[in-house]
């Protein structure tokens, strides 16, 4: 028991240090579910860091692959000395989380090692599903839900959030040699990779971004039926995340799609205000729940 508590404390520390939007939303959860979400976030954060380490002098592609394999060993229960081991095993067993969701997440991270371009939206969708929707499917097992349709809506929410991340981080990803905007869309709007590398804010780019923001919003709309299906004591965590990420899209639009001069971000004050509002809604919903 003490070992699990120490492991959960490690996951919480990592989450608090690394998460931004997520940590605010996680505070809305009751303790056990919140701790398990920390465990899942810590696992996904380590997977992401393994890939990111190839982008500077910290590691090679082989190093990243080795770290991802260590995470697979963690899932198999073969690394009892890992600080994440006890809380991750407890979370998976407690909530009956299908192991294939974790496998999908790791395959998504491997796609970042192999691919720097996506020709079509179908190809990008597969990446978004693995990198984000898989995490969402893990999370709803922890949140609790009452209909299987929730999985379809959680998948859509993950796609929407990952598409938003891509739009927010266009400049940073380009600096790393990555372009997530589908090649077919660049061609459709007559905007080249060379223009993107020069951060050219042209009418064609604005039209391209308007289309991309509209697509992300469409997936947020598809995810809307998810929230009433989530257990009331956990519902406002994913709902707050949806609101936070939708605000990022608002900021991109308000800047006329200029994601080059400054990264679209939500201030701490705005996050805190939204957290407090969601907290009030959550308490009201719990009181009125049958």
Features:
Farnesyl Diphosphate Synthase; mainly alpha; 2 domains; single chain; 290 residues
How far apart the termini lie comes to: 33 Å
**What count of structural domains?**
2
Average pLDDT metric: 93
Strand count, sense and barrel status of the largest sheet are: none
CATH third-level topology of the largest domain: Farnesyl Diphosphate Synthase
Which overall shape is indicated by the principal axes computed on the Cα atoms? globular
Task: Please report the first level of CATH classification, the CATH class of the largest domain.
Answer: Mainly Alpha
- β-strand percent reads under 5%
What's the helical proportion of residues? over 70%
Strands, count: 0
Order of helices and strands: HHHHHHHHHHHHHHH
CATH architecture of the largest domain: Orthogonal Bundle
How large, in whole angstroms, is the Cα Rg? 19 Å
Category from helices, strands and their pairing: mainly alpha
Work out the helix count: 15
Stretches where pLDDT falls below 50 for ≥5 residues?
none
CATH homology superfamily name of the largest domain: Farnesyl Diphosphate Synthase
């Amino acid at each position: 028991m003490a070992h699990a508590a120490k492991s959960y404390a490690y996951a919480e520390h990592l989450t608090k240090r690394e998460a931004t939007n997520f940590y605010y939303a996680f505070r809305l959860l009751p303790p056990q579910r919140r701790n398990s979400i920390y465990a899942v976030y810590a696992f996904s954060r380590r997977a992401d860091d393994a890939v990111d380490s190839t982008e500077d002098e910290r590691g090679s592609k082989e190093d990243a692959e080795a770290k991802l394999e260590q995470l697979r060993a963690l899932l198999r229960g073969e690394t009892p000395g890992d600080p994440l081991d006890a809380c991750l095993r407890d979370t998976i067993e407690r909530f009956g989380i299908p192991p294939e969701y974790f496998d999908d997440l790791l395959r998504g991270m491997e796609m970042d090692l192999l691919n720097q371009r996506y020709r079509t939206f179908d190809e990008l969708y597969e990446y978004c599903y693995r990198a984000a929707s898989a995490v969402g499917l893990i999370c709803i097992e922890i949140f609790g839900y009452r209909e299987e349709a929730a999985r379809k809506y959680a998948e859509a929410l993950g796609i929407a959030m990952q598409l938003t991340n891509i739009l927010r981080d266009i400049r940073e990803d380009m600096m790393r040699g990555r372009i997530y905007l589908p090649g077919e869309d660049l061609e459709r709007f007559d905007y080249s990779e060379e223009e993107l590398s020069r951060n050219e804010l042209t009418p064609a780019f604005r039209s391209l971004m308007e289309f991309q923001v509209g697509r992300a919003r469409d997936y947020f709309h598809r995810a809307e039926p998810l929230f009433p299906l989530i257990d009331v004591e956990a519902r406002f965590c994913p709902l707050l995340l949806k609101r936070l990420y939708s605000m990022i899209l608002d900021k991109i639009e308000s800047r006329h799609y200029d994601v080059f001069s400054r990264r679209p971000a939500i201030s701490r004050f705005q996050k805190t205000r939204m957290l407090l509002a969601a907290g009030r809604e959550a308490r009201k919903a719990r009181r009125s729940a049958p």
